[in-house]
């Protein structure tokens, strides 16, 4: 009788356990199906082998063609989702603080952004620093002019930047590797060298500020602030922000840099475009005072199209700065788990034939009647990001870039070193925090008929 009761109990409970296990398995399978597709990973490194190149944005674009515009990768120990479509990018950037919850911006980040948008890079400040842009770009022109038709390394004369890859970015539990391999030591050495330079720059600026204050106290009126650094040091002294602006913060801001020579390379690769842009600039600048050049930039419609097209093919941020998903959410119909890093591949969208005709070709004219601008509202074109992550220095960067390009076109006729053809110019870049040129850019600058004022 007892055996019969146990048998009946088991016959009843076993089917129930099977049903529960089956339902849990189906639920797990359904959940896994909702995770974005992606390439198979290897033990320990995940999908890292796919992207360890100087062109990770291109590698990710090629993977997205196979796996889709919302793609999952395990990069070392870090869960990562890469976005390669405007629709998914819009979902993140526009609705990130509502439907999709990402890691909140820290107070330090908010203060720095407020500092940039209100004190450093607002419209009035950009205009105020016109004299500095004029002085510095003319200094570049004079330096090139002094070469008298010799080959110059334009890349070394323009701005470059430094970035480093650390193992702990992708393997948080293996920070000791950067000590063993020497990466940390090399970065620290470079940092100390850069610190020495910025210390001297700050000291010189402080001396100028003291001299200006002394003259003002003696009744000699000296108005205005020389440069961005003067503004930063004034804010540091006045301590007007919720979080104090430290000297280390000032150093970090003045060390931020971007590459400026990509428009010149594209013009060398496209001689017809060079002729059109140069003609436009010289018609506008001829017989005009150099100090008035910046006020004439509004007349350079074609040159501005050249710059727009350059930034389409070579965005300063090929991969927009990553966000961290603060809680599990949906992106493009897929489940993205809490703690996942989300990266937007702006480079891939700007080169997609789905959104651009002849996407890989340099065609300035495509922007003639285009509504695409730099504000990040057209998500296939995000050279400076979008939303709350939009670069606050757009106005300052464009004013500088446009003036440099216009003056290089105006004051010089450019040619390639002897025997070199336009198609031989490589466009290789190395991507870290920003894109920078891999190989030096050597060109021959022959002065135009306009004399250079000394």
Automatic annotation (TrEMBL):
UniProt keyword list: Heme, Iron, Membrane, Metal-binding, Monooxygenase, Oxidoreductase, Transmembrane, Transmembrane helix
Membrane-crossing segments per the record: 6-25
Residues involved in heme binding: 391
GO molecular function, one term: oxidoreductase activity, acting on paired donors, with incorporation or reduction of molecular oxygen
Pfam hit, one: p450
Entry annotated with the keyword Ion transport: no
PROSITE patterns reported for this sequence: CYTOCHROME_P450
SUPFAM superfamilies: Cytochrome P450 (SSF48264)
Cofactor(s) required, per the database record: heme
InterPro entries, alphabetized: Cyt_P450, Cyt_P450_CS, Cyt_P450_E_grp-I, Cyt_P450_sf
Highest taxon of source: Eukaryota
Family: Belongs to the cytochrome P450 family.
PANTHER family from the UniProt entry: CYTOCHROME P450 71D11-LIKE, CYTOCHROME P450 FAMILY 71 PROTEIN
Protein known as: Cytochrome P450
Organism: Setaria italica (Foxtail millet)
């Amino acid at each position: 009788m007892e055996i019969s009761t146990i048998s009946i109990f088991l016959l009843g409970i076993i089917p129930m356990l099977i049903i529960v296990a089956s339902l849990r398995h189906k639920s797990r399978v359904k959940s896994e199906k909702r995770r974005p597709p992606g390439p198979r990973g290897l033990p320990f490194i995940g999908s890292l082998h796919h992207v360890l190149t100087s062109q990770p944005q291109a590698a990710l674009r090629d993977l997205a063609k196979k796996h889709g515009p919302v793609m999952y990768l395990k990069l070392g120990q870090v869960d990562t989702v890469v976005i390669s479509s405007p629709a998914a990018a819009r979902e993140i950037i526009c609705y990130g603080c509502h439907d999709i919850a990402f890691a909140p911006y820290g107070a330090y980040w908010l203060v720095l952004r407020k500092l940039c948008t209100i004190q450093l890079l607002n419209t009035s400040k950009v205009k105020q620093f016109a004299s500095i842009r004029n002085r510095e770009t003319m200094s570049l022109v004079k330096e090139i002019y002094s070469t008298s038709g010799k080959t110059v390394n334009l890349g070394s004369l323009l701005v470059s930047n430094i970035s480093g890859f650390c193992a702990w970015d992708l393997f948080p539990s293996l920070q000791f590797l950067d000590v063993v391999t020497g990466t940390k030591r090399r970065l620290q050495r470079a940092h100390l060298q850069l610190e020495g330079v910025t210390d001297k720059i700050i000291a010189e600026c402080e001396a100028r500020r003291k001299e200006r204050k002394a003259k003002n106290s003696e009744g000699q009126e000296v108005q205005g602030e020389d440069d961005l650094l003067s503004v930063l040091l004034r804010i540091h002294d006045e301590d007007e922000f919720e979080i104090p602006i430290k000297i280390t913060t000032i150093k970090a801001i003045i060390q931020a840099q971007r590459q400026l020579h990509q428009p010149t390379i594209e013009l060398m690769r496209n001689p017809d475009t060079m002729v059109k842009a140069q003609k436009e600039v010289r018609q506008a600048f001829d017989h005009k005072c150099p100090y008035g050049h910046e006020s004439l930039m509004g007349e350079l419609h074609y040159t501005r199209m050249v710059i727009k097209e350059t930034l389409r093919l070579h965005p300063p941020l090929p991969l927009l700065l990553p966000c961290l998903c603060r809680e599990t959410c949906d992106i493009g119909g897929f489940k993205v788990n809490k703690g996942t890093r989300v990266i937007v591949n702006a480079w891939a969208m700007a080169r997609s034939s789905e959104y651009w005709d002849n996407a890989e070709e340099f065609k300035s004219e495509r922007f003639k009647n285009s509504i695409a601008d730099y504000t990040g509202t057209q998500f296939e074109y995000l050279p400076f990001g979008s939303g709350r992550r939009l670069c606050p220095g757009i106005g300052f960067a464009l004013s500088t870039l446009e003036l440099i390009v216009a003056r290089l076109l105006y004051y010089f006729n450019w040619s390639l070193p002897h025997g070199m053809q336009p198609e031989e110019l490589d466009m290789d870049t190395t991507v870290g925090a920003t894109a920078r040129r891999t190989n030096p850019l050597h060109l021959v600058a022959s002065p135009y008929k306009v004399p250079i004022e000394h």
